[in-house]
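Write out structure tokens for DNA-binding NarL/FixJ family response regulator.
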Amino acid sequence: MNNSGKKALSEKKAVRIIIGHACILTRRGLVQLFAGLLPQADILSVGSLLTAGIYPEIIMADLVVSDIGHDVVSSAAGTEQLLLLPQIREGKPLVMIAEGEHPALLMQLARFSNVSLISANASRQKLNAQLTEILDGKQVIEMMPAPAPAQQVAEKRREKLTASEQRVMALLRAGFSVTQIAGQLCRSVKTVSTHKRQIMRKLGVTSEVALFAQKYENH
């Protein structure tokens, strides 16, 4: 992205960010990431870019982050509105969280120099690095291929969580820290940390954002 003459968001004293994602847990994880990168940022979290009354805010915000929600791709009007956003935002960055779904739409979005495509399933370290680049005015494109049928079958065969791991996962998703969970369950911090590592291993995720986004059925 060519932002010559523009101050990078990481250098601005006040930054307005809008984060839109259908999953409230993923939104929470993204808010935590950006709050860590930009403590001074004013962050608005919404369930969808099509939320009534939010459109003017989206145009004016310094940065917009969103998934490609079902409400967007389910109608021609929603898709058209999404494709207009990069132009209406006049060079200000738009970050799309994508996992390979809707590849044709992603390809169209990637043509705009102010649009970045990233995966929420990346490690926290990688997400931090990518978001830092975006805040510094660079375009990041990570096109994630859709899961192959064999991969989907393998995911269904992942190990089941134990009862203790399910309790820890529920509390993690509710926003509790490892230390707080240890206190609630009368377990040591080391034990809860081990449960957390096992949960992430069994679900095949490498970051807390991905853990929040992960759907899990223990049967």
